[in-house]
Amino acid sequence: MDPFKNMQDWKKNMDNFFGEQFWSEFEGIMKPPIPQINIYQSDHELTILCNIPGMKEVKNIDLFVDYASLEIQGVISLPSQGNLVQEEILQGAFDRKIELPFPVRGDKVDATYKNGLLNIQLYRLITKESNKNRVSVRVMDKD
């Protein structure tokens, strides 16, 4: 038995009672963020897989890298096949910001799209400048 079978009817009743703006507070709880992602980490690289089905023009995906965050913007638009009976593949406009486990290079980002998956390769930012400073040691007299 599907526990969410009557969810749409329940939501319509709640919309009538509370108003449609009521649900905006619960959007992240009831609907997972899109696109869905997996992040894989190695010593100096991150691979991020994003589930973006049906993308016909990759120029419609915007990627922004800023130090230790990645922002992905676009639209998931699936073709209509008739009346929607059940929806599990989420669609619509998205703007997702992902905090990364370490700073990455903004000048070296590889992104490819194949079979509905956006593959983003990021590389750890390793600065050549060192914050290592020599500290003078003073000898204290024994008294």
Automatic annotation (TrEMBL):
Ranges where the SHSP domain occurs? 25-140
Q: Which Pfam families match?
A: HSP20
Alphabetical list of InterPro entries matching this protein: A-crystallin/Hsp20_dom, HSP20-like_chaperone
Write down the superkingdom of origin.
Answer: Bacteria
Which SUPFAM superfamilies does the annotation name? HSP20-like chaperones
Q: Which family does it belong to?
A: Belongs to the small heat shock protein (HSP20) family.
- Return the protein name: HSP20 family protein
The protein's organism comes out as: Salinibacillus kushneri
